[in-house]
Each structure stands twice: as C-alpha cells, then as structure tokens.
Write a structure and sequence with these properties.
It is built from nine helices and ten strands. By secondary structure, it is α+β, with helices and mostly antiparallel strands. A four-stranded mixed beta sheet has the order 3-2-1-6. The longest helix has 19 residues.
C-alpha cells in the first residue's frame, strides 16, 4: 500500500518549515530555514517588516526537499499554519500595496495609546475579546489609514499571513475566522466583522475576502506553485 501524506507549510517568525505528515498523524520528513523580520529601508529606525518573497522562497525550498524524500506523487494535500496579527493590503492579483508590518515593529505604539480616545478599552474588549496591544492588526490598519492611506485606497482587499501564503499556492483570496479573530476587528459574540471596530480605520466588511472555515478547501495548487514547491498541481488542496 502506497502511503499518502499531507504537507504542512509552517511559517514561524523565527523558523520556516515544511513537514510531511502520514495518515496516522506522524511526521515523517521535514526541512527548515531561519526566518526574521527586516528593517524597513524607507522607514524610520526600528521599523520592521516581513519580506514575503523571501519567506515564500524559503518555504518553497523546504517543500522541494521534503517532496524529494517522500515522493511528490504521494502528496495528497497541503495546508498552511502561521502566526496571527500580521497581514497587509493587496491588489486583486495579490500584489502588495505595503509590506507586511511585523508584530515586533514599534510603529503602532502611539496608535495603541491614542485609540482609547475614540473607544474605551473595556468596550473594545467586550466586542473583540482583546486587550489593547501595540501589534494588534486593527492598530496597523489605523496606522496605514493615518500615515499611508494610499496603501489601503489602492488595495482590493486585506490578507493575513495565512492568506498571503495560500494565495502564493492557489491564487485564491481568503480569510478564515480563526485568523481574523486575532485582528481586533471581529465581534466574537456574533463571529463576524465588527463595523464599529472597522470604522476606526475607515473600513467596512466589504474590504475583506469572504470567509473560509478552518479545514475547508480553499483552492488547488497552481502549476507554477507546484513546480516551485515540488507539489503535484492536480490533487492537493488547501
């Protein structure tokens, strides 16, 4: 009997890995590369961003390595796991209109202090379940609106880190409630976007992709991504 595997692309803020999991849930092969945020060359001292092209290149390399070990024909599905809070606006074709701001970047610290002038911390917590922490996604959206409004105005939608990587694999635009719940923009009691919170950044729910539930099929690996990652483009899905 030929074993079938799921590839997990694991994007961590310090380590990027691809892991092959067998039908019993056991990891059977893996490869990794280091990861780190980079200084923003056109920004202020201390500003940090993610280089999505670099992340994608390293994940592609690790995927190729694991695929060679287990055999590409034995890969039956692909999934992505990564951190919350970080994301960026994109055009319809997935082109970034601004680099992804790292959760380690200090630029939104003043935004975190000033947001309580518009809404109390308690009201924010009742809606979103989140305390005010400087790396919350909403604060990045507000920062972009106040400092680089063009990045939002020229964007078609917003993708979180999982969505950015899934788009590289499938060409599809999506967001899932688990990832979105880390943004401080959801009404967790309704499990939907909070228009009250989004208004703080001059946005509304139509700016975001349609929901896809965790574990739901998002799309199929494109031929280009398949060649790059050593993954068959016919069978696997996200």
């Amino acid at each position: 009997m030929v074993e079938e595997y799921v590839l997990v692309l694991d994007c961590g803020s310090t380590n990027l890995r691809t892991v092959a999991i067998d039908s019993t849930g056991k990891p059977v092969a893996h490869a990794s590369r280091p990861n780190r945020p980079h200084p923003q060359t056109d920004g202020k001292a201390g500003w940090l961003i993610w280089n999505l092209d670099e992340i994608w290149q390293k994940l592609s390399e690790t995927s190729q390595e694991v695929s060679r070990i287990i055999g590409p024909k034995n890969i039956k599905a692909v999934t992505v796991t990564t951190w919350g809070a970080d994301g960026t606006p994109v055009k319809r074709d997935g082109t970034l209109t601004y680099p992804p701001i790292s959760w380690q970047c200090p630029r939104t610290q003043e935004t975190a202090k000033s947001i309580v002038e518009k809404m109390s911390a308690w009201e924010i917590f009742k809606i979103t379940g989140y305390q005010i922490i400087s790396f919350n996604t909403l604060l990045k959206l507000i920062w972009l609106r106040e400092n680089v409004p063009k990045a939002l105005d020229e964007a078609y939608t917003w993708l979180m880190m999982p969505g950015l990587l899934v788009h590289r694999l499938t060409g599809k635009l999506h967001i899932d409630p688990t990832s979105a719940s880390t943004m401080m923009t959801m009404d967790l009691g309704r499990r939907d976007w909070s228009e009250t919170m989004l208004e703080l950044a001059g946005l509304d729910p139509s700016f975001f992709p349609e929901w896809r539930e965790p574990g739901q099929i998002v799309g199929y690996v494109t031929e280009e991504a398949g060649r790059r990652c050593g993954i068959p483009s016919v069978f696997p899905w996200l």
